[in-house]
Structure formats: structure tokens, C-alpha cells
Amino acid sequence: MKVQILILLPMAFLLPPGTWAGEIIQGQEAKPHSRPYMAFLDIRDGEKRSRCGGFLVSENFVLTAAHCNGDEITVKLGAHNIQQRERSQQKISVRRQISHPQYDKETLNNDIMLLQLTKSAKLNRWVKTIALPLANNTVKPGTMCSIAGWGRTSTETKSTPDTLQEVNLKVLKDDVCLKNPDETYYDYDASTMMCVGDPKKGKASFKGDSGGPLVCGKTAQVYTRVSTFIPWIRDTMRRLQP
């Protein structure tokens, strides 16, 4: 079955002030290898080391969030437990990091980045690409989607899980992120971001999951509204193909 991918780089979730979309809050462990498009990003930036999620959109390109940049990035594909040497895993370094030219690191608008791998991934039952949505395709409020990643599972702890976690989330009306007086996403831009989450149940994505896809039905999004950036994504991939 073709998986539609409405890209939502975990960013515009309704989160308490001070938190960062990227953790799987009130989620559960995913069925091993049920999301073969998922990519784990090991990021080195000077002495600092961090992690992000991403997803494979072609054999040699991973899509993630622009704030997941660093001096050196290694991508792990086909992983469920990132601390184990699973035979399904492929570890590939990143050749090029291409952030969107209008990315604003202060407001995090246009927070999207393509990673060109040093070699093509070998597609198999553990490693597969996910389809991009049509340009300017939108997801209706009320739609149930899911997000996955290896980020923190609680706002109370800094520890991160070794296995892939997932949670179901609802697409909300833009007004929820624009006008919520207690949990406002101050720099929310409805033209490039998506408002997703469940403030009543406390479900969200959190640190470490940034860059992973929000899968809605048969399409992937990221908390950056990926469909808005389809022309840039396709042009960039076409230009850099060998």
C-alpha cells in the first residue's frame, strides 16, 4: 500500500511553553520495523551531540527539520532499537545538508532540510521510502495522524528510549495554535506549519523526534507543512542527483 506522507516536521504541536516538539508523549513502542521509512539522525556539532528523526524520501535523500543541522550527521535506517546492531540497520553518513533558503532559526519558519546521503540506501523490507504529498495538499482538522521517533517519552525526564515510539495525534484548526491563551505557539504560521496534538490528553511529540514524519492516512507530513515545499524539495533532489 502506498503511504501518503504529509510532512510535518514536529514543530507546531500544541505544547506547554518551553517544550520542543520532538518527544513522543503518552505514546507506546511501535511494532518493530512497521515504519521502514524512519531515519535516526546522530548529529555532532562541535563537542555537542544530539538526535533527530527523519524519513527516507528517495534512495539517497532523507527529509528532516532544518534545526537538526550540525557539523556531521550519520543516518541510521532500518532501525528499531538504535542501541543494538540489528541486521536490518544501514548506517550512512550525510554528504550534504540543504536547509530551505528561507529557514528562520529564530521563528523556526520554513524548518525543513534535505540530507543527501554519501551512498544510496538499499531498499528492502526494513528500509523503504515514503511518498511525498501533492503540492499544497492540506490535511483537514479532525484527521487522526501518527508520529514516531526516538525522543523523550516524558517532559519530566531527559532520558530517551532505545526503541521507536509512536503516538496518534489529531490535526487541529489553526486557531488553536494561533489563539490558545495558555499554550500559544507564538510564531505559528498556518501557511507553512500544522497545528497537531491533543491538549486534553497531553499527547504530543517532543525533543529527539524533530524531523520525523507525521503520517496522515497514506501520506507524510512534518510539523512543517511539507506539501508547501514540494516544488523546492523536488527541484533540489533533481539538481543534486548524480
From TrEMBL:
CDD domains: Tryp_SPc (cd00190). Residues 1-21 form the signal peptide. SMART domains: Tryp_SPc. GO terms for biological process: proteolysis. One of its GO terms (cellular component) is cytoplasm. Keywords: Disulfide bond, Hydrolase, Protease, Serine protease, Signal, Zymogen. It comes from the Eukaryota. Residues 24-238 form the Peptidase S1 domain. InterPro entries: Peptidase_S1_PA (IPR009003), Peptidase_S1_PA_chymotrypsin (IPR043504), Peptidase_S1A (IPR001314), Trypsin_dom (IPR001254), TRYPSIN_HIS (IPR018114), TRYPSIN_SER (IPR033116). One of its GO terms (molecular function) is serine-type endopeptidase activity. PANTHER family: GRANZYME B, KALLIKREIN-RELATED. This is Peptidase S1 domain-containing protein. It comes from Chrysemys picta bellii.
